[in-house]
Amino acid sequence: MSKKHTFQTEINQLLDLMIHSLYSNKEIFLRELVSNASDALDKLKYLTLTEEKFKNLDFNPRIDIKFDENKKTLSIIDNGIGMNEEDLINHLGTIAKSGTKSFLSSLSGDKKKDSALIGQFGVGFYSAFMVAEKIIVQTKKAGEDKAFAWISDGKGEYEITPCQKDSQGSEITLYLKDEDKNFASRWEIENIIKKYSEHIQFPIYLHYTHINYEGEGDKKTEKKEDKIEQINNAKAIWKIAKNELKEEDYKEFYKSFSHDNNDPIKWIHTKVEGNLEYTTLFFIPKNAPFDLYRVDYKSGIKLYVKRVFITDDDKELLPQYLRFIRGVIDSEDLPLNVSREILQQNKILSTIKSASTKKILNEIENLSKEEQQYKEFYTQFGKVLKEGLYSDFENKEKILELLRFDTTDKEMLSLKLYKENMPKDQKSIYYLIGENKDLLKASPILEKYAQKGYEVLLLSDEIDSFVMPNVGEYDKIAIKDASSKQALEELGLQEVDEKSKKDFEELCKSIKEILGEQIKEVTLSNTLQSPVALVGEEENAMMANLMRQMGQNPISMPKNLELNINHPIIQKINTMKNNEEFKGLIFLLFDSAKILESGNIQNTKDFTHRIYTLIQKTL
Ligand code: ADP
Ligand code: MG
Prior knowledge:
Helix content is about 40%, strand content about 20%. It is an alpha+beta fold. A hairpin with a 4-residue loop joins strand 2 and strand 3. The chain folds into three domains: about 5-225, Histidine kinase-like ATPase, C-terminal domain (Heat Shock Protein 90, 2-Layer Sandwich); about 235-365, 2-Layer Sandwich (Ribosomal Protein S5, domain 2), CATH 3.30.230; about 500-619, Heat shock protein 90, C-terminal domain (Four Helix Bundle (Hemerythrin (Met), subunit A), Up-down Bundle), CATH 1.20.120.790. The site of magnesium ion has 4 residues, from helix 2. Homodimer. Molecular chaperone. Has ATPase activity.
């Protein structure tokens, strides 16, 4: 009895895109189907090693590809885990995968641009509808009796019906569109498999017909012969000795493994023997994966135990801040039936994790020796690396060394160089955090540092306000917020003398009365160039950070308003009467200081109103 089902709405959206796709790289559909077949084989292999029920199964994992040029069909066959009726509905009728979901949510409605994303996201099974007008999946789940066929033309509905199939596994048959019939050819298939699936761990066999011509002239006859050849090398490349591998081998493996079309910028292949025995092969991609900053990003590391695939869904195999790394960890010491819970707190894995982390950080350091190369790496991954400052205490110093900063007069500066350039009397490393670099550069606080010839790091990543206040020090030098009282005191700039303090005492009082809780205190300075500046305290920044870590919105602490007693505006204001006009000017000065500090003010209407009054007066 056959049953009709409708696709989940999102799938229809996806299918619509596939069917109308003008994507030039359609061939990736084969990569997707082969990787599904390989996953299915991995799953069954795992069961035969861990479950009593499957221990005696005669299992030679393999993938077969058949095609028929005349009928324009192409079949991908595996003897893996297979699917039952429920699996078919859940896996080929609904989207559970986060990758596909993010793909859909990034669709813009611009068909051309959207189809360019297909290759980047690798949208799995459904990509077959780019080339097929109909697909039939015949499948039987390992250990079950019934087989089912799933049939669809990708237009809203699919049908499931019982079918005949002897062995476990799946056979996916594509009925190719006329314009895509070229995929039903020996050379085309061989080329695509070589390109994307060379390093799939299971043998891929291609079935084809070889034609022999016998006799001469009139007596010439055709003799057809069916042949099968293996078209990939089916080796776990990470288990091959380094000196037997060529650059191309790594690159090809990376591409088939990560579905990234770019070459990786670096790979790190390590075999460890001794107390623990394991092999790791890590790649640093050229570009950041699309989901790097999503909470549901997909882990790029696959865990194997003695070459048996265990999981690609464990985000703890490497620290989170290295989540852009792609690769393989293969342990000889873990039991095959490690459960998720065990993985979480497994000693062996945590040893591998910390050794791998050090290794990767060292390689990134090597990368940093070549400036241009590092710049490219850093624009992609610098921000995520910074997260390590609060999550990986053990490697904090190393991470600090890898970070690069824009400063008051340089770009991409390392702390090491910053330190080397420090004038003899400079006590700390200073940074200023703000919305963007232009805004930061306009900050009056910097005038003081410029006077001393001190460079200041200008930080505008969102994460900076989160991590920097807690870094503490680099290479035994304290790292301080340049706008904090503590930092400013270190500048040892000339104090305001007693006489001036007296002269401005009244003014300070009046200003505090006018601005009230918006500021902490009014202070005096003879080192500013601007008339006023807002100056905070180190503890406030730390407090704000602490609150953020506890998941609360930090309340912004009032800062000190600093007056430049040498500035004509301040000197003039000091002679004014405390009236409405005076008040208006104080508010204006305060707002200007706020704008320079954060780029925005609370009450823009009052602000502009005061500006208009001022303009009117001068006209
Ligand atoms: P993904 O492979 O990323 O999960 P796909 O769209 O490629 O996404 O496949 C969806 C699901 O369909 C797979 O997760 C798997 O459960 C099932 N599936 C696809 N092909 C096969 C197959 N050859 N054998 C068994 N299950 C399969
Ligand atoms: Mg898939």
